[in-house]
Amino acid sequence: MISGIRIARESDEARCSELLGILFSQEHEFTADAAVQSRAISMIIRNPELGRIFVGEIDGVVQGMVLLLFTISTVLGRKVALLEDMVVAPAWRGKGLGTLLINHAEDFARSEGFGRITLLTDRDNDIAQQFYRAQGFSPSEMVVFRKLLDDKTTLNNSASSTWMCRECGYLYDPAEGDPESRIKEGTPFGEVSSQWSCPVCFAPKADFDPFS
Ligand code: FE
Where in the chain is the domain with CATH 2.20.28.10? Predict the structure, then answer.
């Protein structure tokens, strides 16, 4: 029985990360990395000004999630949201949980004064597209462009080079690595995942500069 939709708590991090793993194994552009996903989930849960994660429980177990990330539209002159990571555990699809989640996210966005929700889905995922159309979304004529910003990793990659976080001054020392993010001792900065972020302030890897 669907017991309801609620905002995710820190205790939901592991389950949300699992659900993201299911989603990314289906999407063409992404690969699953549990540590990376947990970090992202944790970043949102601990920084509610950035967005909200909504989870749907069935018999007390989280079986679906969706998240809204907050930004601003200069066209609308108001807050808008990006809807991301809509996923329902495979065994519970087609039972209305996805609709409940997306309706809940939309109600939240309306009540908080947001003017628009934007989402991306795979071009060839007809089922997802039908679902979003049924929820009142329509395709945009815009084309998505992306650029990954991790090219600094090639600049200074000697095994002992330390790198400093521009935001908070945290120093990444290869001798220590970052055990909490499963980066082993002796890992040069250049070999740290581009998805890694500062363990202190969560600034992305791209915000680090060579220090020594
Ligand atoms: Fe930092």
Answer: 163-210
The CATH H-level (homologous superfamily) assignment of domain 2-134 is Gcn5-related N-acetyltransferase (GNAT) (3.40.630.30)
Q: How far is the CA of 44 from the centre of ligand 1 (A)?
A: 16
Burial class (CB in 10 A: 0-12, 13-18, 19+), 172: buried
Q: Give distance in angstroms: CA of 70 to centre of ligand 1.
A: 21
Q: From the CA of 145, how far away is ligand 1's center (Å)?
A: 27
The C-alpha atoms of residue 14 and residue 103 are separated, in whole angstroms, by 24
CA distance 209 to 212: 10
End-to-end CA distance of the chain: 57
The model's pTM is 0.70
Per-residue pLDDT of the chain (212 residues; tens, 9 = 90+): 777 899 999 999 999 999 999 888 877 777 777 778 888 999 999 999 999 999 999 999 999 999 999 999 999 999 999 999 999 999 999 999 999 999 999 999 999 999 999 999 988 899 999 999 999 999 999 999 988 886 544 444 567 788 999 899 999 999 999 999 999 998 888 888 888 999 999 999 988 888 87
